[in-house]
Design brief:
222 residues; globular; mainly alpha; 44% helix; 4 strands
Length: 222
């Protein structure tokens, strides 16, 4: 399978604009896209997030979210950060949508804004969570382990890209974040940690060189 396309800023704005204007569930779908683009989360990681992962019992949002090892493809715990203004706005919008429609709510509103902390953050329109398929891979210790993959949600998100006429798929958000951080001068070790990769070599598929930058490098070589 080829590498997922890295999105330019204009493409990101267009994708979100089309999704917001055409999706039946824009509150949810825009949040899914932004969690990939600004947090570098895989689709399955997004599908396994729970209300208790992103919110304190007081109802305040967490800025640092711990992804449990059991929910990551590499089976390694890592942290992502809910600090991007647009993502926070989208999250607040979706939480309000869920509360208004009683999706995963409890009888009392004393904690977690009335939402059940054990329910998944991202729900289907029916109120249930997205299906997980069990797959098997060999981890870095050479052990064969089972992991889950949200194939149905992955296909759905890829269709959001197609609907917007954007050459991308579900993994494009994660690759876009990595490429943008590297282009802005973030050291590769920090990007490795944010993405949860075992080695720097794993970042090679995320490296995309801008031809304009190459021309600029030649112009100042001496």
């Amino acid at each position: 399978m080829g590498q997922a396309t890295t999105l330019k800023p204009g493409q990101i704005r267009h994708l979100l604009r089309v999704t917001n204007g055409t999706s039946r569930y824009p509150e949810r779908d825009c949040l899914i896209l932004l969690l990939g683009i600004t947090c570098g989360m895989r689709i399955t990681e997004i599908s396994l997030l729970e209300i208790g992962d992103i919110m304190f019992a007081s109802g305040a949002l967490r800025t640092e979210v711990s992804l449990r090892a059991a929910t990551t493809k590499g089976c390694r715990q890592r942290c992502v950060y809910l600090t991007h203004r647009q993502t926070i706005t989208a999250l607040e919008r979706y939480l309000a949508y869920r509360t208004e429609r009683g999706l995963g709510t409890e009888l009392t509103t004393d904690k977690y804004r009335g939402l059940s902390p054990q329910t998944k953050l991202i729900l289907k329109q029916s109120g249930g969570s997205f299906c997980q398929n069990t797959k098997r891979r060999v981890n870095f210790g050479g052990e064969r382990i089972d992991y889950t993959a949200a194939d149905s949600l992955q296909g759905y998100v890829t269709r959001l890209f197609l609907k917007a006429g954007t050459r991308g798929r579900s993994h494009s958000g994660r690759r876009t974040m990595a490429s943008n951080l590297l282009a802005q001068g973030t050291d590769i070790e920090s990007v490795q940690q944010l993405l949860g990769h075992q080695t720097i070599e794993c970042l090679r598929p995320y490296l995309e060189v801008d031809p304009k930058k190459l021309r600029e490098m030649f112009s100042v070589v001496l």
